[in-house]
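Bumping with the actual sequence this time:
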Amino acid sequence: MTAPFDADHDFVRIADVCRVLGVPHDDWVLFWRWADELPAAKAVDELNSYVDVLVADRCRAPAQDGLSYLIVRDMTIEEIRAQVSAMVVTPSRQPV
């Protein structure tokens, strides 16, 4: 059994994650939804697709954000996806 999604606490946590990663403010609600839905396959696919686009954007125009840092560390796209997913997933839903 998992703890219920706490809209106030989890939105603040996701806002912090999005800010660190350099996610546009208009897309933060997507991350909030994915945090609630992960690890459902559809949410994983959507998050991975979004991350792929962000990575492509950062490869063309690096920024001063966490995602650019992951790219500069020569992480593979799979490693970056896993890192972002781990940051987004609600702590109570992470495997023990």
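The tokens above came from a reply further down the thread. Residues 7-90 form one domain.
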